[in-house]
């Protein structure tokens, strides 16, 4: 049965293709342009088989169905070791698993061995980068150790170092960035099969600080394994297109002002004060390192109630205290479901279609792709995560404190 309510979506991982030895070198001090390629695409599968042959146990650890994330297409060191690092605007530190590594048995990309690299250099605990933002501390050798913890309870620990990073460009060449500050992870806890994090926060320890404090990414249909036009641009040539909304930076992370939410023409009844920046809480963050949007309970309940009203009794609801889920086929049964619009400051609008608003679980269950952030006396944090950024080019101009959102097909953007 169809609910008279268009769009499409699935949930596998995205990643960049591994480096190839035949690529042409390109050197640039200001810009990196690189493609994003779906994990289930033929180019990725051929690369992963190259590094993990069939008789290697790790070849069977590649997941078929995970939350959709983006991975940086790069290699570390000299000689280069290919890596899959989660693209994360909510993290300031880039880190990768290193040999030896405790808790890295399930990692599906090659693990970097600093002992084999001629360009690896550990930073001392007296370095300007070894500060409280990375929980920096001194070991017995006066080397800087870092600790990073994440919302999913995963943790990475190791030493802070500098190393050469090599990226695949949009023209299948390579660009080298020397002396990138990163964490060489020696211990990891959590359910994570990827190689680490590409931190794009605004701190001096971030790669963004070496590339003009500008970057942009364009995300298309992350459910289509053959979509070839997702991409990332770091540096001066990043695409600042569409309308700009003020970008607030707090503790090196990115925030925007969310004014209202509407479905079709109906405004949700929301206290606008709940979205104002109040120190570390009560703000609306932009985060590419996770998928489901986070909203305060009162906002979640208002959104949930309107979705329930629109779907009505035409689809059976699955009882849950935290999620809104239905028995049904997402793209067939929600044809015509209206856009959900996030209205940002300065008239900027972020439109969410059904592939951005809902997650499909198996073929006959789907849920609203929104989670609850508990409110406190100081307010609560809201997060616009990756799923809500589909079909958009998103640009960050950190020095000008502007964020740009343009709804587009990434194929149409020249880069």
UniProtKB/TrEMBL annotation:
Family to which the UniProt record says this protein belongs: Belongs to the peptidase A1 family.
GO biological process, any: proteolysis
Keywords: Aspartyl protease, Glycoprotein, Hydrolase, Protease
Upper lineage: Eukaryota, Viridiplantae, Streptophyta, Embryophyta, Tracheophyta
GO terms assigned for molecular function: aspartic-type endopeptidase activity
The keyword Secreted appears for this protein: no
Highest taxon, organism lineage: Eukaryota
Pfam families: TAXi_C (PF14541), TAXi_N (PF14543)
Stored InterPro entries: Pepsin-like_plant, PEPTIDASE_A1, Peptidase_aspartic_dom_sf, Plant_Aspart_Prot_A1, TAXi_C, TAXi_N
Gene3D superfamilies for the chain: Acid Proteases
Domain annotation Peptidase A1: ranges: 70-406
Protein name: Peptidase A1 domain-containing protein
